[in-house]
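Morning. Coffee machine broken again, so started the prediction first thing and wrote up yesterday's gels while waiting. Chain of 688 residues, entered below exactly as on the submission form.
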Amino acid sequence: MRASLTAIAAELKRLKALGVRTLPVSDASLQQLRAAVGRRTQAGPAVPPAPAAAPAPKAYETPARTYATKPVETGAAPIPDSLVEGFAQPPDSARPWVYWFWINGNISKEGITTDLEALHNEGIGGVIWMEVSGMAWAPDGKVPGGSPQWHECMQWAFHECARLGMEFDLTVDFGYGSGGPHITPDRSMQKLYWSETEIAGGQNIDQVLPKPEVAKKVSAWLRPGANINPKVVEQIEEADSYRDVAVVAIPLPASQLGRAYRLPELDIKDGTSWLLPRGKKGPALPQDAVTPLDSVVDLTAKMTSDGRLMWDTPSGKWLVLRCGHASNFKMTRPCPQVAVGLECDRLAPVGIELPKLLRDPAAGKLAGIGTTNEGNDVNPIVFDLLSQPYDGVHQGMAAFSSRGPCLDGRVKPDIVVFQNGNNFFDFFKEGKVIKEDVHRNLIRVHTAPLIRWLAANGSSVKKFYWVSPAQAGNVTTEVQQFVFDCISTHVTKIGVMLDSRKITSYPYKNQEKDKMHFYGTAALDWGDDTFRLIADDLAANDIDSAVVLTKRNIDLSDTSPQPAKEGEVTLRLRLKALTPVPAPATFAPYGEFLVGYLYDVLEVKTGQYNEKEMLLFHPAYIKHVKQDLSRFKLKQEFTLTVAEIGEDSLWTTVHRKDIVGPPELYPYMIREDIGRHPDSADCRKCDP
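Came back before lunch.
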């Protein structure tokens, strides 16, 4: 056996020296290996050879361990081929992973494919994605972090890993830390601060202790010419992150040396500095600089919330320490400008609530955990369907784009959380006029497709939550209740309708001018409280034993597509008003966007149409590419063949904007445009 294994070891060593990426073993060596491990046995017990005497270890060597060999009994199960062959050709699960860095936006689909194929060819089984952006690392690339093109590249990386059979995982955020513009000072990394007050004993003290001084020193690694997000600066300047922890009193040291003494290199030894302790020696320790624990007086309960200390002091002189924590104002680094912000507090749940959806499987289930490899339950990729907290809460229906990550099969979530509702407020004239039949059907058109899709295709979904918008200021309470009731009619067939009006209402802190969107701490608090509602519901209802939606007998009779009011129709139209095309950042990461144009109806040539005006939606972006709408000029006449945007249309779930059409007009699109959706079978017509 020793000779056989020695021969195999020698061959493997030779192959390793040649740089062979796997461990291909020759047939002869395989036979030797099988014989060595007793794959084939003869009648009677196998007797292991006597071990050779091991040479005495040298002084600097650790003695080799000796293992007894168990005899192979007659009739013992043979060693399976898979075990032997697994050494020759390790399975994918045994392949190593590597960190895969994107630097300063220097990425492209071609580069991603080249990288991953090269890694795959070298036997790498998976990658851990990171993106960094140092002050002088590499030139600026063409794909800024967080841009629509960046999201497109990220989705491309997912698919390429799946194609190559590789696994993919992500770090929590850009750079080496975890944080960003969405982290406010009170949820950032914390530091202990204290103030010192000398008090003479033997009296009743009733005085306000000074708050510790918290210096707001902010620095960030930024590319030349880049600045910190103004919202981040505003939050830091306005917020008071200090929170009291304890108040203690110690006898004041008698000597000046004792009062002034501080432990050397304290900021290094306590971990608040990145430097390593150097063993620097300070002055000799004065005898009265050390306070016995039994001499420390805990005064925490004697200080009020406004810092007022009321204490009947014992005799002597006392040093009172008001201790608390506040942000250390450390910024994320090195990362793209869009992600520069405060680092989150790793030691408090409230500090990691937001980014933990990308790292904590238990929390990630709230938004949906899935994999890039079908049937493989490792390598979780988490998508939060709620709005990005630093952009407010206005993503809405974009989460149910037919190209959205959670709903097109790329991930397999247990739980889907969906937020929408305030987008529907635009349907109501002056925010108060309700036309029940018209508005009920419009809301139904936007709501029912998601419900039907989840019931039919949500093969992994066990729980669905629809989060209503907070109480808004741009519509009446009657309109908001009407919208809530209309949505609930469909949502409650498969899931839970969460009413966030109970959490936040207008006027908001950090509100937008439209009176229905907000950002900053208001959005963070709203998100925290919303997820607490979800957590409470999950605690009361065991998710593990829940049945997936596709296996439930759900009555969807009133969510099925309705026949179109009007069929295809050809008209002569005059353009009278148009909606401006927005910037891509307003609907990123989604690649499609529609804008509404309002036309006067001059003549109906074929089909039937009874209104005097028509609202046509034109694709402004397809696959992040801006479409040419220059031929549509105001007051110009057109003869167009159009069709309604039906409930089963792919365009139903795409972000759209209309500031010109009356809310009662049903949306139409030009016939040729309908086939240009990227997921359409006729996508060949899409602009490159």
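Residues 2-45+67-90 form one domain. Going to sketch it on the whiteboard this afternoon.
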